[in-house]
Amino acid sequence: MRVNEFNQPIGDYLENDQPGALPSFESIVGASVTLEKVAPKHHDDAYDMYVNQIDDASFTYMFIEPIRDSATFESYFEMLVHSKDPYYVAIIDNDSQKMVGVFSFMRIDPKNRVIEMGGVLYSPELRKSKKATEAQYLMMQHVFEDLGYRRYEWKCDSLNEPSRNAALRLGFTFEGTFRQAIIYKHRTRDTNWFSIIDGEWPAKKARLAKWLDEGNFDADGQQIQSLSAF
């Protein structure tokens, strides 16, 4: 343990204390999905996804209500395109070339090199799929290897069991619950916090890469071993 001249314990010295980079990319290409900054070209796919495909229940733990009319969508889509924090990213299916989901980098803190994954919304075809896992993997890789961040966060309503399970499955560590942290939709929210830090990333990366490997899937695209097995 390091101590200062007053014999007080202090944190480890950082060789690199320079700020991280802000998210800014056109595309990140994976084996099954491509990530693209939400742009006007995604308009029609996004409309179909938000208005026609995603059911009301999927919005329960989102900060927005279901979008069911053109005027509301147009306003919301403009925000998706122009917002810098959150920085919204479209998930493109490499087979269909259609937008099948959206998520974002948010609470972006370059100085402390901390960034959060949030605003996750998947179309029915993307949910619980290999493509969804690869999309999350590509975002993690970008955070640690391209942007140079030290800490990657995931937060959710403590009652949102699917989000909690997704965070743990992807390798995030549960850190605790912030009680009465947020008021949204006229209700209170206790927020669960999860994280991955840079020193953990190589092992987390190897685990995800093994699961995503084509050899872990049969001819019908079904996993041979679950991610929890790695």
Task: Describe, in plain words, how this protein is organized in 3D.
By secondary structure, this protein is of the alpha+beta class. The chain has a single domain (about 20-215), classed as 3-Layer(aba) Sandwich (Aminopeptidase), CATH 3.40.630. The protein contains five helices and ten strands. It has helices at about 45-55, 70-80, 130-145, 160-170, 200-210, and strands spanning about 1-5, 10, 25-30, 35, 85-95, 100-110, 115-120, 150-155, 175-185, 185-195. The strands form two sheets. An eight-stranded mixed sheet has the order 3-4-5-6-7-8-10-9, with helices on both faces. A two-stranded antiparallel sheet has the order 1-2. Helix 3 (about 130-145) runs antiparallel to helix 5 (about 200-210). It starts with a strand and ends in an 18-residue tail after the last helix. The mean pLDDT is about 95.
Listing every helix as H and every strand as E from the N terminus to the C terminus, the arrangement reads EEEEHHEEEHEHEEH
Output the CATH class name. Answer: Alpha Beta
Number of strands: 10
Mean pLDDT: 96
Record the strand order, biggest sheet.
Answer: 3-4-5-6-7-8-10-9
